Every structure is written in C-alpha cells, then in structure tokens.
Amino acid sequence: MMTNAHKPQATAAILVDPPISARLAKNVRRHMFERLIEFILMLAGLVAVATTIAIVAILVYESLGFFEHVSLVDFLTDTQWTPLFEDAHYGIMPLISGTLTTSAIALLLAVPVGTIAAIYLSEFASHKTREIVKPILELLVGVPTVVFGYFALLFVTPLLQVIFPDLPGFNMLGPGLVMGIMIIPYISSVAEDAMRAVPMSMREGSYAMGATRFQTAIRVVTPAATSGIIAAYILAISRAVGETMVVALAAGQQPNLTFNPMDSAATITAYIVQVAMGDLPHGSIGYQSIFAAGLVLMLMTLFFNILGHITRKKFTERY
Amino acid sequence: MENQHIEASHSTAQASVLKNLAEVRAMIRRHKANDYIFSIIGLIALMIGLVTLLILFVDLVSDGYPRFTMDFLSEFPSRRAAKAGLLSAWVGSVLVMTVTFLSAVPIGIAAGIYLEEYAPKNWLSDLIEINVSNLAGVPSIVYGLLALGLFVYILDFGQSILTAGLTLGLLILPIVIVSTREAIRGIPVAIREAAYAVGATKWQVVFHHVIHYSFGGILTGVIIGMARALGETAPLITIGALTFIAFLPPSPVTDVAPFISFEWLTSGFTVMPIQMFNWLSRPDHAFHINAAATGAIIIFVTLLMNGTAIWLRYKVRKNIKW
Question: Is the pLDDT reported for residue A279 higher than 60?
Fold first, then answer.
C-alpha cells in the first residue's frame, strides 16, 4: 500500500540517481527495527509467565526438601505445628484451622454487607450517590493492611472486650471482622459491575408487570447476575485466605487446632511472617517449612479460584 | 326470582372486588414499605465501610499526634520510644519505591502494549493473558517467598533494597499491565487508521499516538500500583527486611566522579510499614504511639495517591470527546 502511494516519486528518483538499494536498505532497517520492538515487548509480556513458573518452581523445590524430612501423612494428620521446637511436630491442620476460621468470620460479615451494598449501589442509589460513594469505597481498598492490623489490635479487640469480657488480647474474632470490612469493597464493586451488566430490558419487563424496585432487584437482577456475584465472593475468599498482616498482628501467633473465634491462633500467613522475622539459616527445616506452608496457601487459593471458575460456568446465563 | 339471584351475586362480586382492591392496596403499600426499608438497610451497609475508614483515620491521628514533630522524621529508631524516629524507614521507602517504579512501570506498560496491540491470537498470547490475571490473585506473601528463594539466595542479591524493589515490582506488575490495557482499549481504531494512512509504521503509531492518548489512564494504574507497593509489608518481612536500622544507605549522589553511585542498591533497609509493624508488635504502649503516628503518615500518603489516581481517571474520562 505504502509503496504504491510512493511509486511516481520513486520512479522519478531512479531516473535522477539510482539510490534504490539505499531506499530498500532503509525499508529493511525499518522492518528489522519493528520486529525488534515487537520482540522486546513480547519479552515484557513473558515476565508474567516467568513469574508464575518461578513461584511454582521455588515453592515446589523447597517443599520437596521439607518432605524429605516430614512424611506427607504426618503433615496432613498431625494436630500440632511446632517446627521450631525441640519436639518438632509438622501437622498443617492447626494453621489451616486458623486460616479458615478467620476467613469464615470475615466472609460472614463481608458477604451480606457487600452484597446489600452492591444491590443498593446498582439498583437504588442515584447517579450522584454512586459517583461519590464508589471512589470512597475504592479508597478503602487502598488502605495498607498493616494499618488494618493496628486497628484490629488496638481498636476493635478492646471494643469487643467490652462486650465479651473473657476475650483474650489476641483472638480470631477481631482480626476476622476487620478483614471482613477490608474485603467489603472487593465484593461490592465486582458484584455491582455484574448487576449493572444485566440488560435494562429485563428490569423494564419486571416493572411492567408491576414489580417494585426491591422485587426487581431480588428476583430479577440478582439471579441474572449470579455468576458475577459468585465471582466476587470467590475473589473475597482468596483475599481473606491470603491476608497476612491483620492476622499476624492481632490473632496471636500460636498455632492452635481450634475453630473457636475467641481463641488465639496462627494462620498460614502469620506463621510465614513469624519465621521470617527470626533469622533462620538457609536450607534448614524451619526455612523449608515456610515454603511448604506457602505451597499449601497457593493450593488453597488455586482451589477456590477453580471452584469459582466452575460455578461461574455452571451459572452463566446469556441474554 | 332469577333476577334477584343475579342481583345478589352481582353485589357479592362487587363486594369481593372491593375487598380485593383493599388487599391489593395493602399489598402495594407493603411492597413500597419494603422498598423503603431496603434502601435504608443498603445505606447502612454502605456506611459500614465509609464510617470504618473515618474511624480508622481519626483513631490513628488521635493516638499518634504527640509524635507529629519534625524530630520524628529526622531521628533513627531507638530503644526509647519517645526518641525513636522514622528517618531510616522513610528514606528506605523512597529508595525501594524508586527501584519498584523503574522495574514495574516500563515492563508493565510494554507488556500491556504487547497484549493489546501486537499479540497474535495464539496459545502464547493466551498463556500470557491467563498468567497476568492469575498473578493478580496470588497472595502478596507468596511473592515474598518467591523473592526469598529467587532474589535473596539463587541470584544472591541479599536482603537488599534491590531485592525489595524488584519484589514489589513483580507484585504491582499485573496492576500496571491491566490498567495499561484498559487505557489503550479506549482509543478508537480511527486514530490508528489515520496514522497508518500517512505511512506510519506500527511502532510509530503506538509510540506517537496510542501511548500519548492513553497516558492519563496508564498513569492512574501506575499511581494505584505505587500506593499499593508503599503500604505492602508481608513480602518484605518474608525476604528479611531489618527492623532496627540506625544508618542510612550510601547516598546515590557522590562528590567524586562519576557522581552517581549504585552502592545503595545492595544496602540493608527498612521501610515505613515494617517499622510500624515492629513498633506495634512490642508490648510497651509507648511504642504503639509511634506506630500510630507512622500509620497516620502511611495512610495519608496512600490515600492521597489513590485519591489523585481516582480524580485523574475521572478527569480523563470526562475530557475524552472522540
């Protein structure tokens, strides 16, 4: 196309002076430069792939070292996790119970509140309210987690102790609730996007039958947006399971096999932080144990992500 | 008689219609009340998040205000809470963020451009795309484990500013990539076609036009990513950031030629969130005041950055009149 456009000039140029090879050389250079740029950009894209591979490789490699010392059966069935003690036990169950309990508390708060907030923002709020509230909710996402840890330890837990005088200073309830507030914006913004994507004609159909806003929201819009809402929940679970600083600061760092929110406990993430704070020699069993814990954490988030993918597929409706 | 019967049934029908009407009206009232009740519940649900943010900020400022002095910014950490300061932490934060910026922003924008403008429809592009969305969901502490294994021990960067900066760079890479792609996607094809029509090559189209017009959107993503990196604690603890640092890394600018030194890259460091975590995990309450003051500073800076980004995005959206 380009050569065609320049043809008359090119012929003229040849008549005057034959620099055709020079012109072609310029084209070749230009072409080479373009390919080089494309190659460099592709390398940048491949950094993402390399990161994933490196994460999996490092976690698996160090965990293999760990499982040379600890049998998989012990790892999954032992009820104590004391890798740094003289009498070392390597049962991951206490860390998993801590992780699941704090995450469950967080979700019990965040799922209803986040869903209601999403329905309100999508179906009830005026345009103006939405324009003001959404950015503020986004700000909540930007608050560093260590600050939320401070809040859980020194504000929420003392407040809860007024209601439950027996509550110890380190417990799972306080950090669980704070984590719940932390992940409300994740649920509300993703769920709201899903609801807003429901075609207006469906709402109009519902209104035409005499349904109210609330009926339309609950019986028409919410079912139609199920896949997106579930995706929001799954995202929130992943966040809660992987959250570190809030639980490391406020839940105590004692691995306890308990599901009681009043107890102190350690999560997988809190254990990793606790070990990393100390100075463990590279290659020791304690050092390897944080990679094994990290691998379990990765597998848990992966499990929830796949679960989310499957549910989404199952519930997806097309309009 | 038949007539009478018809009349009677007529009047009962009328009565039942009236009764029905009353029922219908009651139902409408009930449903309208439901609407009203739900809108109040919805407002309360929204307020939970907003009020928490407000309480959090007020709590930090009111706890930490005794330490809002210039000394707090110019003193090193100390065993005595009232004398301890943030100097090494904020300098560390600035240096780590510099490395993060220089690593994540060019790679992130380049990857975003590749996926949006160049990537052919094949398995490799799909693979990159899947990886970017997966990485966004990986818990931050896992990046810390990656960095501990890869940067600290295999590549032997040590527990340095370089390691920390690169770790956070990888962490915010998906944020930069996704926002770059979104910004680029908003640019109409007509702009590209116009550039191609006057003989521009693909790179010229991208470099002179696409990047230029999507700059605001990309900047939004970069600011949000940097704010995230500034507050991130867990991955840096995992790589073994020190918490008690009473020295500054070597200055990047020296007074002898060549005037620029990269020695600071390999220096030990601490950053503000880690200093806060350290003070917070001490039992002595006097240190909690320091932690509150640090938290107030961190939250102020990150909220300022996020606020700028949100405002910028709003402005970019409003200004576009393709």
Answer: yes
State ipTM: 0.83
**Residue A291 to residue B230, Cβ atoms within 8 A:** no
A120 to B43: CB separation less than 8 angstroms, yes or no: yes
Question: Which positions in chain A touch B48 (Cβ < 8 Å)?
Answer: 113, 181, 184
Integer-rounded Cα Rg, in Å, for chain A is 28
**Domain segments of chain B as ranges:** 1-67, 69-319
Q: How many CB atoms lie within 10 A of CB B203?
A: 19
Which long-range contacts does A215-224 make (Cβ < 8 Å, 24+ apart)? A215/B31, A215/B34, A216/A123, A217/A119, A217/A122, A217/A123, A217/A124, A217/B38, A218/A119, A221/A119, A221/A122, A221/A123, A221/A195, A222/A119, A222/A195, A224/A198, A224/A317, A224/A319
3-state DSSP of chain A: CHHHHCHHHHHHHHHHCCCHHHHHHHHHHHHHHHHHHHHHHHHHHHHHHHHHHHHHHHHHHHHHHHHHHCCHHHHHHCCCECCCCCCCCECCHHHHHHHHHHHHHHHHHHHHHHHHHHHHHHHHCCHHHHHHHHHHHHHHHHCCHHHHHHHHHHHHHHHHHHHCCCCCCCCCHHHHHHHHHHHHHHHHHHHHHHHHCCCHHHHHHHHHCCCCHHHHHHHHHHHHCHHHHHHHHHHHHHHHHHCCHHHHHHCCCCCCCCCCCCCCCCCHHHHHHHHHHCCCCCCCHHHHHHHHHHHHHHHHHHHHHHHHHHHHHHHCCCC
- Give 3-state DSSP helix, strand, coil % of chain B, rounded to 5: 80, 0, 20
Tell me the pLDDT tens digit for each residue of B31-44. Answer: 889 889 988 998 89
Chain A residues close to B132, C-beta within 8 Å: 48
C-alpha pair distances (Å), A225 with each of B139, B151, B229? 27, 43, 33
The answer to whether residues B139 and B71 touch, using CB atoms and an 8 Å cutoff, is no
Compute, in degrees rounded to 10, the torsion defined by CA atoms B304, B309, B313, B315: 50
Please name the member of A59, A113, A291 whose beta carbon is closest to the beta carbon of B48: A113
Residue B322's pLDDT is what?
Answer: 57
Q: How far is CA B149 from CA A60, A294, A297, B99, in A?
A: 11, 12, 17, 19
- The C-alpha atoms of residue B308 and residue B212 are separated, in whole angstroms, by 20
Residues A121-146: tens digit of each pLDDT: 988 888 888 888 888 888 888 888 88
Name the closest residue on chain B to residue A180, using Cα atoms. Answer: B49
- Using an 8 Å CB-CB cutoff, list chain B residues near A47: 107, 111, 173
The CATH architecture that domain B69-319 belongs to is Orthogonal Bundle (1.10)
Query: Which residues in chain A (162-201) have CB-CB distances under 8 A to chain B?
Result: 181, 184-185, 188
Tokens coding B223: 């600011």
Joined together, the tokens standing for residue A97 give 């119970």
Question: CA distances (Å), B28 to each of A202, A279, B24, B39, in order?
Answer: 21, 68, 6, 17
